[in-house]
Design goal:
Blueprint lengths: L1 E3 L9 E5 L10 H9 L2 E4 L15 E4 L1 H6 L3 H15 L6 E5 L8 H13 L3 E4 L5 H8 L8 E4 H4 L13 E4 L4 H11 L8 E6 L7 E6 L13 E5 L8 H11 L6 H5 L2 H20 L3 H24 L5 H14 L2 H4 L7 H18 L17 H14 L7 H17 L3 H21 L4 H25 L9 H14 L3
Parallel strand pairs: 2-5, 2-6, 3-4, 3-5, 7-8
Antiparallel strand pairs: 1-6, 8-11, 9-10, 9-11
Helix pairs in contact: 3-4, 8-11, 10-11, 15-17, 16-17, 18-19
Length: about 500
């Protein structure tokens, strides 16, 4: 028994009873005593097997009609709360019963308690066996040391499972095939299509049933109803960000790795740079297997830096994630708020307005549009980033033909330059203009040059191989001979 706002010698105005999972034999002794001595009782829903075991002289009211009258559960629960509070004003008070336990997957309990506190009404909570205990028993699992418990109705509105996949999960209120279908699509973003799941129906009742099915069949069951739950076995250990953070933290402990313990932000800088370029190479090669591996190596560097920062009292990984989470939400009001932006160009312009507001709020309003671009970026990327940012505020050519005309102009200026310093500047201007063409064509200049480098390497390697095949040194061959092999290498690229 749990008493809320209880005054001395005053009977509770509201009694909220947990009816258990469905079998009347699983009612608590206290719940049965109250029900057996009551003249009437109000039920959130009459569709609960325990009701069949009520005393025959008990007058039963239910709020099932509200589910048909209202468009959302929230409005139904608000009306139930208002009615229970109204009934509590009677001398006899009111007895209100809910499935399971009043504090497990039961929104009306909290709403009634909140209103009762405002009005200083006494409330007695009589716990019940929730759906959890019978579900654990049906699945033959111990929820300790860890398990995630989720509401399918909340989960179906998300786009990615909000929990670590390497611990077991129990998902309640899978009460229809529509809910099961949305749930399945959400889970398949992480879990394999054939991942085994347990679909648990009527846990704790004589009609209890367990279906062992692959995830892709979750919404094909004909047994799904309002007392269905899903148990999701975990993926292999190490499949979550939390598990990865644990092993990185372990590496930094006294019983961890001597090398990892010695590292700091500066000593790891070359490693981070190297991993970034290896990621780019995997992307340029369009190699998913390599991408998977290289993204992992890059993530290692990020987590390691965050761990070092945490140990130094600078920030934690949760701060990193929270910071970028808030930034993304703030910079996408057209997604997370009511700002109507349909075109990509409108999104970009609004993005710049938001960033300008951020600079102002951070006391950075005097900094220019290009100030936040790291000058350590590769030169081609830096040039293209500068051009993109300037173009967002209207500093740009009207059409690409004017951009192309800049190329011969820059070549002419290079031809008349005499001093090395002047020639260097003109070569820079020429390259900057070429990057501008790439930007207009929506081509990443850095990637384009990396592709050209890769092709040159492959073609030149072909020349070397063919020269060795005929027993000749490259230095002894004429330019015409080398050019013939070069053209051969180009003709083979389409094979």
């Amino acid at each position: 028994m749990r008493l809320m706002n209880q005054k001395k010698d005053a009977p509770p105005k509201i009694i909220i009873i947990g009816l258990g999972p469905g079998d009347p034999d699983l009612l608590t002794r206290r719940a049965w005593d109250v029900i057996n001595s009551a003249g009437e009782i109000y039920l959130r829903t009459r569709e609960h097997p325990t009701v069949e075991g009520f005393p025959p002289n008990l007058k039963i009211h239910s709020f099932d009609n509200l589910y048909q009258e209202e468009e959302s559960f929230e409005i139904v629960y608000q009306r139930i709360t208002a009615e229970i509070i109204n009934l509590s004003q009677r001398n006899t008070g009111v007895i209100y019963a809910v499935p399971g336990d009043p504090f497990v997957a039961e929104a009306t309990t909290q709403m009634i308690l909140s209103k009762a506190r405002e009005l200083e009404l006494e409330v007695e909570i009589i716990p019940g066996v929730s759906f959890l205990e019978p579900a654990f028993s049906a699945a033959e699992i111990d929820p300790l040391p860890q398990i995630t418990i989720l509401d399918a109705l909340e989960l179906q509105d998300t786009h990615y499972p909000p929990f670590p996949p390497d611990i077991p999960v129990l998902i309640a209120q899978v009460h229809s095939t529509d809910v099961a279908s949305n749930l399945k699509l959400n889970l398949m973003a992480v879990y394999p299509d054939d991942h085994p799941v347990l679909l648990i129906h009527d846990a704790g009742n004589e009609s209890e049933l367990i279906e062992k099915i692959p995830l892709f069949e979750l919404d094909r069951s004909r047994k799904i109803k309002n007392r269905s739950s899903v148990f999701l076995p975990p993926l292999e250990k190490g499949s979550s960000l939390e598990s990865f953070q644990e092993i990185i933290a372990h590496l930094r402990t006294p019983d961890g790795c001597p090398w990892d313990r010695e590292q700091d932000h500066q000593s790891l800088r070359p490693n981070l740079l190297e991993e970034v370029f290896e990621v780019l190479e995997a992307i340029d090669s369009d190699d998913p297997v390599a991408m998977q591996e290289e993204f992992g190596d890059l993530l290692l560097q990020i987590i390691l830096h965050a761990q070092i920062a945490s140990e130094n009292g600078e920030f934690a990984m949760s701060d990193v994630i929270r910071g970028i989470y808030l930034k993304i939400k703030q910079r996408h009001p057209h997604v997370f708020e009511d700002l109507p932006l349909d075109q990509a160009e409108d999104v970009i312009r609004n993005w710049e307005r938001i960033k300008a507001q951020e600079r102002k709020s951070n006391d950075d309003s005097t900094k220019g549009l290009l100030a936040g671009v790291p000058v350590s970026m590769p030169a081609l990327t830096l040039a293209q980033t500068y051009q993109q940012r300037a173009a967002r505020v209207g500093f740009d050519w009207k059409d690409i033909q004017r951009v192309i005309k800049k190329i011969p102009e820059e070549i002419m200026e290079l031809q008349v330059a005499r001093e090395s310093k002047e020639q260097t500047a003109e070569v820079g201007d020429l390259l900057f203009s070429v990057v501008n063409i790439a930007r207009w064509l929506e081509i990443d200049a850095e990637s384009a040059l990396r592709g050209a480098n890769r092709r040159f390497k492959e073609r030149f390697s072909y020349i070397e191989k063919e020269a060795r095949a005929i027993g000749r040194e490259l230095s002894e061959m004429t330019l015409d001979d080398l050019d013939i092999l070069w053209e051969q290498s180009k003709s083979l690229e389409g094979d």
